[in-house]
Amino acid sequence: MELLRFATVGSVDDGKSTLIGRLLYDAKSIFEDQWDAIERTSQNRGEEYVNLALLTDGLRAEREQGITIDVAYRYFATPKRKFIIADTPGHVQYTRNMVTGASTADVALILIDVRQGVVEQSRRHAFISSLLGIRHLVVCVNKMDLVDFDRAAFEAVRDDFLQFAKRLGEVEVTFIPISALNGDNVVDRSESTPWFDGAPLLEHLEGLDVTDAEDFDHPRFPVQYVIRPMSNEHHDYRGYAGAVAGGAFRPGDEVMVLPSGRRTHIEAIDTFEGSVAVAVPPMSVTIRLTDDVDVSRGNMLASVHHPPKAARSVEAWVCWMSERGRLTPGARYAIKHTTHSARAVVQSVEGRLDINTLTEEPGDGLSLNEIGRVWLKTTEPLFLDWYSQNRRTGSFILIDEVTNNTVGAGMIVGATEEDD
Predict the structure, then answer these.
(1) Cis peptide before 79 (omega within 30 of 0)
(2) What domains are defined for the chain?
(3) What mean pLDDT comes out for the span 55-66?
């Protein structure tokens, strides 16, 4: 079954964790002991209802404060589809956690409290979602039960958000009136909204086509591992394992090995279940080549007709995630791009994103949770695409070589050809 990844984003107290709890409960995807545990916790806290948010708010600090701090991932499946949910924080100070949770999502569920309307954090998270390349936004207008399911209140939020969404580029926006607490329009259609002719949330997610986010035209295969069994039975086997990052690969295709530029052909494509006739994103496969060429981890197999860009000077939007220091010109980091690792120096910080006004302003560096446009110079060429074309070959992380901590996440928007 096809997998869909979605992230819940939005402002504090808009009901993100409650929505996920309701979705899991109504889809019959939680166990009795889990239900008993959150029922007991809710009673001990003096709450008059079973707090479904406790299904995802797992940290003690989250339960004590009633907020989401870290990203919580949950898995569930229906007969039509498999899902991975990322429940992300709403607080400004946890922007880096929100970026982490949304970075691999196909869809962003933006929760908006119908009584509060579109607030600053709603716009911020919608903008960051579009920056991360999420092309499908589902705006869940929550707590409709508190306004007696008033159609005008729902439409006021919809119209306000649509006005803002004109600044988000090519995104598809869907609006659903819900009550996460009571389950209205979450899994089952609500009788309280006869004026709403759309599908409930789960039905919408089951039928959503997200293949438009994949780049099927530019074959990219970063090599993760070289397989040499060295057994008597398979002594001459040599395969290159990894996940397809773009395009389609078929036996007989001519490919280029980067960075050497050597050309060869695909002999076969193997999987755990056996050989396949075609490999597309995000399949994990082992590719065998017809020629004995030098290929190692960090190399890339790519189309000879549509090769990636080779660049050592890279322009990117960077989300800074380090509490220990700022990103400033001249700073040096390890950079990991697909399976390839190199070193990078910050050439310049061109500007910082004002997350309140969503405009770029001058800045000489980035602090924790800030996002800015940065130029980096790498020690080795990166074989890349723009992030808007391919989220896998257009992204990277920066690593502090002293602590080995990930300190930044980047989305490539420009580059100059490989030089000196």
Answers:
(1) no
(2) 3-213 (3.40.50.300), 220-303 (2.40.30.10), 309-417 (2.40.30.10)
(3) 48
